[in-house]
Amino acid sequence: MTLYRNISTICVAAVFAACSSSPQLSAPAPYGVLPEERQLRWQELETYVLVHFTPTTFENKEWGYGDADPASFNPSSFDANQIVKAAADGGFKGLILVAKHHDGFALWPTKTTPYNISKSPWKNGQGDMVKEFENAARKLGLQFGVYCSPWDRNFPTYGSHEYVTAFREQLRELYTNYGNLFITWFDGANGGDGYYGGAREKRNIDRTTYYGWDTTWQLVRDLQPGAVIFNDMGDVRWVGNEEGHAAETSWATFTPEPVDGKAVAAPGELKYWLSPEGTRNGKYWKPAECDVPLRPGWFYHPDQDHRVKTPAQLFDLYFKSVGRGGALDLGLAPDTRGLLHDNDVESLAKFGKLLTETFSNNLATTAKLTASNTRGNANKQFGVKFLTDEDRYSYWATDDSVTSAELLLDWKEPVTFNIIRIRENIQLGQRIERIAIDVKENDNWKEVAQATSIGANRLVRLPSFLTTHQLRLRILQSPVSIALSDIGIFKEPDELPSVSYGNVVATGAMDKRGWKVVSASSESKDPKGAALHAIDNDPSTLWYTWNNEREMSPPPQEIVVDMGKAQTIKAFTYLPRTGGSWGVVGQYEWQVSPDGKTWTSVASGEFANIKANPIEQVIQLTKPVNCRYFRFIGKSSVEDNYISAAELGAF
Questions:
Q1: Where are the beta strands (DSSP E) in 521-597?
Q2: How far is CA 135 from the centre of its chain?
Q3: Number of neighbours of residue 197 by Cβ within 10 angstroms
Q4: How confident is the model at residue 13 (pLDDT cuts 50, 70, 90)?
């Protein structure tokens, strides 16, 4: 498969050609699998955004079902330049547009389906939103990419080869008419409930064979040879979560492993829990993209206007994604006007300012650099001077026999810092496995940090500022000689607030004092899974309907809660468990009652994308209801055959 072509020989030739002017020294031999040229360009980009804007925005949903009227898509003040400028102000270098999401609505006038923007009232059906985003991105210097969902909940013949043919033609249109793309984005959300031309049914497909990925991805290679493919099995891997972070140790190489019961790994069907760390000495160069929305959800929801990630949170995520050798892909969600909310714009601008203020002054450039070993004992080709020249592919190297070494930075006057940046020349592979950092304190060396998996970029952020006149980088473990391309020492602005994440309960939730569980159709015999945990105001406890491998209570399962007195309810909330998706509810229903005897259904549907993005779900009712009792029904589970809930709540 061309997607996995190993081009070690090409990279080796390029490296040796670069050194031909100094024949007395040869370059270090490459180690392991190597990145292709398009992957190198992707590694250099580091940050980009992913924009979700379809009729789903106007439905206030996270996933559209595919039945929205195209007439609903009519943003009153759409301005691609406002959205792109906000991304640029945040320091982001690229933009991916969701040209078609799972709802099947195409944002360009495609010939493959009538369910497209030409049937909307926006610009009297003459608009092309993909072109507007492309023009705005290029105008402001951002690279452009597209995502076209393989799953289409509107297409009447989804599940047949006819749809695959149409899908490939959609890709051909996108890859032909919108200039050079830096990335083509594919996810693993394939098959399930949908409108499907009015059939309103569930359609399952074989993910390993249905899309004919070899043929489909060949379109990328033929039409956009410079673009990387994002996918579990692509040039760039999904990091395995939608929280925006890789593992502390994160290798750029990866060997996808099939899930139990499958012979081969496929998009959406592999052991994704191995993705945050990657595979040391993996079969393919496949670095991690860390995707996360700026808000709790990928699409705009009015109730999330005050739940936008703060600049300090974004800064923290930058270190946990870009700083661990990957890329940060931040989701942006225009509102029904077709603009980013002021809170989103403000957070992005302040984050961009943080990046600029932090990384504009590299203190290493003012230090005297000394290495314990230099390749051939010469500084012309592989000396330490290349560590501060802002070139990712010039580098300091050691002799082949030297696999551990020290680098000393010495300043005439003490400097204050808290960030150390280290990069390898990844044209020669990911080599270093462990380092330590020391500072001189009272004429003695003090270790202040250790790190692993250096690769394209490693950012070590210390918990507090340090002041010293000497810093020592010790390379402790590497299977081969060192090829380091960059050392950076930086100081972030003072007094950044601490940050936290997790399943934050929505602001305004009703006080639960006086609530009690009237009944639960099933609960664990283990006290840890008792039904009362669903309303105890403690997100760390769970109600679940599982005891052991021989005792699962499959959905549907329900729980009835007495709120103690009649209340006017505008919305219900469901908080899934943290640390896994076992028992997390997929499809739901809420019923209400004044007396616990007569019941009325007030909300039902699906918690879209909850497996990958397990945040609190807020279900707004179509109109307020007055009730004392509510019944929550978990109709399906996204993983395993039981139901769980960390918290149920109401507004």
A1: 543-544, 546-548, 551-552, 557-575, 587-593
A2: 25
A3: 15
A4: very low
